[in-house]
Specification:
Structural class: mainly alpha
Shape: rod-shaped
Largest sheet: none
Distance between the termini: 145 Å
CATH class of one domain: Mainly Alpha
CATH topology of one domain: Serine Threonine Protein Phosphatase 5, Tetratricopeptide repeat
Number of helices: 5
């Protein structure tokens, strides 16, 4: 009797232990699956974030490439425009040179014809007989003074006059520009920018369609 009770008790203990082990093992499996699912979700979020970042980077690169292409087209257009202007200036220079040679009856490397003669040497100029002062018996006259209405005017600053001439030229006021260029050249012929004034004086005549004067000034 006691042996039967001991056997039944042992069976009950073994059944309880088996039941406990099955329950514990099922809980661990669920936890592992849950953790794995959570890890996969985190990896998916990280992957999506990386993909979005790459898409933004690609979009920025495409935008910068488009901008660079636009700048290249602009630079190419400016280069072509500058080339056209250089060719136009070269053509005008050749036309002016040809016109000057034709006007002076010159050939490249040649000499002027008899139609043009240099100014006579000063030693050959007849200045007439010398004037001899005659003694009038009076004391030497006092130095002649300026008339009351005469005022001494110093030459104007050449740069100021030249800049005013340039402003008139840019405003298409070519006659006013000519007056200012003439003032610079007459009052300051040795000024370091006098050759510029001479050139723009010729340009003024050219823009006024006074071609003979322009050729002479060139």
């Amino acid at each position: 009797m006691i042996g039967k009770r001991a056997t039944a008790g042992a069976m009950l203990v073994l059944g309880a232990l088996a039941t406990g082990c099955a329950t514990t093992g099922g809980s661990q499996l669920e936890n592992t699956v849950y953790r794995n699912n959570e890890m996969l979700r985190n990896m998916q979020r990280d992957l999506n974030s990386s993909v979005d970042g790459l898409n933004d980077t690609v979009a920025n690169l495409e935008s910068r490439l488009d901008e660079n292409e636009g700048q290249m087209r602009t630079l190419r257009g400016l280069s072509e425009e500058n080339q056209h202007q250089l060719e136009t200036l070269q053509q005008r220079l050749e036309e002016y040179t040809t016109a000057m040679y034709r006007h002076l009856d010159l050939t490249p490397g040649g000499r002027p014809s008899d139609a043009w003669r240099p100014m006579e040497d000063e030693d050959d100029v007849d200045v007439g007989d010398p004037v001899i002062d005659q003694d009038t018996g009076e004391d030497d006259a006092a130095p002649m003074s300026l008339r009351p209405d005469a005022e001494f005017q110093a030459p104007a600053d050449p740069m100021a006059v030249y800049e005013q001439a340039q402003r008139n030229f840019m405003d298409n006021n070519y006659q006013e520009a000519l007056t200012a260029y003439d003032q610079v050249l007459s009052q300051h012929p040795d000024w370091e920018h006098a050759h510029n004034a001479q050139f723009w004086k010729a340009e003024s005549h050219m823009n006024m369609e006074e071609y003979s004067e322009a050729i002479r000034e060139y």
